[in-house]
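Re: beginner question about structure tokens

> Can someone show what the tokenized structure looks like for a real chain? I only ever see the sequence side.

Sure, here's an example I had lying around. Input first:
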Amino acid sequence: MNELLFAFGNLRSEVMVITMTKPTPLPFHQNKKTFHAKSATFAKDFSDQKNNPFRPLRPLCEQSAFTLIELLAVITIIGILAGLTLGAAGAVRRHGATSTAKAEVAALQAACDRFFADNNSYPNNSAVNPSSSFAPTGYTAAGQALFTNLVGSATLTAAPTTKRYLEPKPAMVYTNGTPNYFVDPWGYAYGYNSDGTNAPLIWSTAGQTTGGANTNKWITSWPKM
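And the corresponding structure tokens:
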């Protein structure tokens, strides 16, 4: 029994010695070589990362950038899209102007019918007529005659002296002259022709000013053939 306790005591002493004993450090020159080796390995791994933004002395050729061909392709696509957008916007504006002119021609014709119902005649002016030789700038006098008869005054802001058969929107009236006159969405006077007895002809040239009369594009109060 004593021999077993003696052996156990010796074994415990050896375990404590082994546990508490520190490893013997390497000599200084060997420890320095190990540190430099680890540093070199880390630096090599760090510099081999092509996408590492902190990579020292990184060549410019490895940085992400657009090439000239890619930039030209993008500019071309943007130009095509801009052209399509502007073309579509122009078509929408033309369609809107045409619709507005049709509505205004119909309103003028209805006002002339109301005038005829009260006076047994239409506003009389046959100075201009829709023909192959036309100039919307020459419709001013006829437009002024139509305006004064339907509005009952020389200007839109003046109080009417006779019955008013039409309440036009300000955008429909040219006010920089006296008398005022009706203008289409393109800014030109509406054409008007009537001898007072026959139904009036009212039309817009849809922005045409030169090059002959293409009546297929006109907006008119009479049916087109």
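Each token stands for a local structural state, so reading them left to right follows the chain. Helices lie at 2-20, 28-47, 68-119, 140-151.
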